[in-house]
Amino acid sequence: MKAVVVRQGETEPTVIEVDEPTPEPGEALLRTLRVGIDGTDHEVIEGNHGGFPDGDEYQILGHEAVAVVADANGTDLDEGQLVVPTVRRPREDGNEYFERGEPDMAPDGQYVERGIVGAHGYMTELFTSAPRYLVPVPDAFAESGFLVEPISNTEKALEHAHATRSAFEWTPETGLVLGNGPLGLLTLAMLASEPTDFSRTYCLGRRDRPDPTIDIIERLGATYVDSRETPVAAIPDAHEPMDFVYEATGYAKHAFETVHALRSNGVGALLGIPDDWTFEIDGGAFHREIVLQNKALFGSVNSNVRHYEAAIDSLSAFPDWLVDDLITGVHEPAAAPAAFETSDETIKTVVEFDTV
Ligand code: NDP
């Protein structure tokens, strides 16, 4: 069967033939429908993030998938059920974070991530998984269900944002998303719709019009902010201070500038994954502002099953046009490398292995 991989020493995806997997006892066999591509996949291919499975000379890519149960293999899954697989698996049985359903909080080294670090991903015709790592999704999700994984990352970030502000009355009205990539646009859609429902939303990019991402931002009722004209720290004066900032650029200066864009008592979530970068900041102003204005800044990675379940509701609530506009390319497995090509017209591409 076909698999889309990156080989050791290479920085391009390749399509290869691999053996069909056989499920172990307690595992089901899944037939892949669609696998989405995001910024993390590009970082994996370029060797900036993740790592190969032990002893293998290639890694099967892909961590955003929707699949159908092909062989329940004695598990309590129903054949034909649509599922979205989670990403993390424990390095060793009995890991306390996985045992209590919080794999997203496991420290580095205690987990592998399918398609990212130390384990093969889902960009292949068939894969196997234990049922506890599969989240059932509605039949209507055959084409869009791969978006549950990225949305779940934002469900987690929003949950943590509210948790940091739970000691007092916090009713956020203004939300700013940094980054108009797929993660930023999905998050903007979540902030702009029920149940989050921020009154005013903004999204930062660095593109000229006409641009399909700016069209989506404005169709969602948000204000586009061009970072070349209005740096993050200048946003409170140019627009208004923000109750919530969600960073999805991977541009490391934004981690610090986020604090200056926040209103008193606001919270910033950092999701981007930058390379090493040394630069100067006014550390005194950064520290002082956090303390004297009761601001919070936190990092967030990955998500757990609860967040996937919340993501199903969020995705169901999106307008149909949004998913259509976000998916700018659907590619056959044999042509999968084309799905990794980027341009200003490309937002979200998928490799489609099968349909229902
Ligand atoms: P993309 O790289 O597709 O999107 C990043 C966007 O940010 C691009 O549209 C880019 O604009 C924009 N951007 C970058 N720098 C600036 C800047 N200085 N000013 C304005 N806009 C800027 O990635 P994704 O949307 O897939 O993901 C976003 C980040 O989140 C990535 O770093 C990814 O690795 C990370 N990530 C983290 C997760 C987590 O759990 N923490 C989960 C998934 C992703 P342009 O296209 O014009 O260059």
TrEMBL record:
One of its GO terms (biological process) is non-phosphorylated glucose catabolic process. Its EC number is 1.1.1.47. NADP(+) binds at residues 180-183, 206-207, 271-273, 300-302. Its cofactor is Zn(2+). It comes from Halococcus salifodinae DSM 8989. Catalyzes the NAD(P)(+)-dependent oxidation of D-glucose to D-gluconate via gluconolactone. Can utilize both NAD(+) and NADP(+) as electron acceptor. Is involved in the degradation of glucose through a modified Entner-Doudoroff pathway. Pfam families: ADH_N, Glu_dehyd_C. One of its GO terms (molecular function) is glucose 1-dehydrogenase (NADP+) activity. This is Glucose 1-dehydrogenase. Substrate binds at residues 40, 113, 149, 153, 302. The gene is gdh. Residues 142-353 form the Glucose dehydrogenase C-terminal domain.
